[in-house]
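Researcher: Here's my situation. A collaborator sent me these components and asked whether they could plausibly form a single complex. I don't have experimental data yet, so a predicted model of the whole assembly would be a useful starting point for our discussion.
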Amino acid sequence: MGSSNGMLKGSLQTIMLKLLQENGRMYGYEITQKVKEITKGDIKLTEGAIYPSLHKMEAEGLLITHTEMVENRVRKYYLLTEEGQVEVRNKLKEAESFIGNLQLLLNMKPAIS
Amino acid sequence: MGSSNGMLKGSLQTIMLKLLQENGRMYGYEITQKVKEITKGDIKLTEGAIYPSLHKMEAEGLLITHTEMVENRVRKYYLLTEEGQVEVRNKLKEAESFIGNLQLLLNMKPAIS
DNA sequence: GAGTATATATAATTTTCTTATGTATGTAGG
DNA sequence: CCTACATACATAAGAAAATTATATATACTC
């Protein structure tokens, strides 16, 4: 079950960027919950992975943030910049290509169209 | 084109083990060529990545080697041990699960059966 | 002699993740 | 009251895995 991690290495950013693209704005904890939900608990992002990664993307100009107080708790929302929007598209193309190649290499091609 | 790398991080071992499972025995350089061929040049494995990885798997008991001289050149062939055979199957299940989750997260599910 | 292909190896560095810890609020259970 | 869990962020230390660069060696082509 929860052992689908380990191969996550290069795709954390892509996943987070994609979720931000779909949801407009999200905060870190929300991202971890969304990923857990979508993958039915298979993939659990850790704080040690997501926060440094979000900070890095912010520093690179892919994301901007705004902080809100909700129920006495701080929430730091992340949003894509225009640069970020471009980056998601590139990362998604990369991911698509990569998954295709991986399926070829691992003999997992789901019947060619 | 050749930009499908970068996401390769956690799947190098799986790819090499799978190729060894299919081909019985292979040497390092041969693996790089096979991967380049199958992915039409998209994925180029580097020596700095494959040799340490092969050595590690040998040290872990997943692979054994035998060296041959072919046309005045040394070839070090790698083969799966029984432990290695088991490991390929596990890695492939992991990869399948991971790819499924990634497609879900990235909205790339190719129509549900 | 330079460049490419074949073939392996390793060292130095960087990237990225895991693990652990720390802060802080709120709720629920014993 | 103390513990545990959920929410919410952050960072430090260390491990793992890759990139980049270099080295060796043979053989062929320009």
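Model: Some features of this prediction you could bring to your collaborator: Strands of chain A lie at 25-27, 63-70, 73-80. The longest helix of chain A spans residues 82-105.
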